[in-house]
Specification:
single chain; alpha+beta; 5-stranded antiparallel sheet; rod-shaped; binds zinc ion
Amino acid sequence: MIIYGTGAKDLGSKKIPGAICPSCESQNVSIVGIAKYFDVFWIPMFPYSKKIHAVCTNCDLVIDKADIDQRTANKINLEKKSFKIPFYLFSGLIIIACIILYGIYTSFEHDKEIADNLKNLQPNDVLVFENDDNTYSYGKVITISADTLFFNFSNYVFEGGSPDEDLYLTDKEKYSDFYNAETYYYFQNTLDSLYNTGDIFDLYKLSK
Ligand SMILES: [Zn+2]
């Protein structure tokens, strides 16, 4: 359940010299600024309005716009800019932007790491291949001879989303025949292009 709503932030007040309250005729007229914002789980996401009101601090009247003379109205308009919306009312948007940027950054780093490791495969490293039916199969490096790499492929495929290393290790423990004993080979440049086309989805660096 997402709890969301709106909130109001008092932006402070400022006395308007020379303005007179239409009700009690006191000269204690101030303008107050109010920012309204949208919040999710009590975290301000973004402000959606900024309003200023003229109030009499003597009788607490919120003075109607129609009752303000033009000169005072001009003064109020000039002061409106000085009511700044605090930066933290954008907290939610900033948090979301940071999460997205962090996600882009880590996925970029992960891609780079795979590309690097792919050029330096060792026995026991595991390649994760994405199949056409959205399942994943595994190829374990057995031996390497110059630019030819020999693999055993898994008898089992992973389905239901993309696997990670921990899931792989858990799954592998369950089956004594997880890998087929038959050996296949790839050339290094074939592996590089399979990674570029997305057929190689991940690489587990399990060589020690
Ligand atoms: Zn008043």
